[in-house]
Write the structure tokens for this entry.
Amino acid sequence: MPVSVIVVLADTHIRRGSTRRLPAAVYAALEEADLVLHAGDVVTGELLEELAGFASTLAVLGNNDTDLVGQLPEERLFTIEGLRIAMVHDSGARKGREARLHRRFPSADLVVFGHSHIPIDAPGLDGQRLFNPGSPTERRSQPVHTFGRLRIDDGHLVGHEIVAL
């Protein structure tokens, strides 16, 4: 069955021995997922194992993922159903982000990133889409916790949303 529903997470910061868990709405979304993307700051491999129990999971290394150095790449570029997706944790400063990510991943249709905890679902340059799911566990200065959901059909991104918790 081709991938059609992708749950996108970032900045979960669930530490070993912590009582923190993903919110119930994220677990409900994971039940429907064909693929899970985690854009870094996973912190421990236990969460990656848990996510993989729901669907295939791809992740990149975040600045707080010291236990996962050597296990996760700093960036990924892959194709799902013909859609070219790039993933990196830190996209850099807001100013110039669109041009910077387009230079870094010129062939990507979609660039997924995290780090800021600020949800972003916006057009980039030359048809590229930029997507930061925010954080389902640490909202920081944001009004609510968030995660992302994407839908792909025949190589096209037909749905993209930031889900507020």
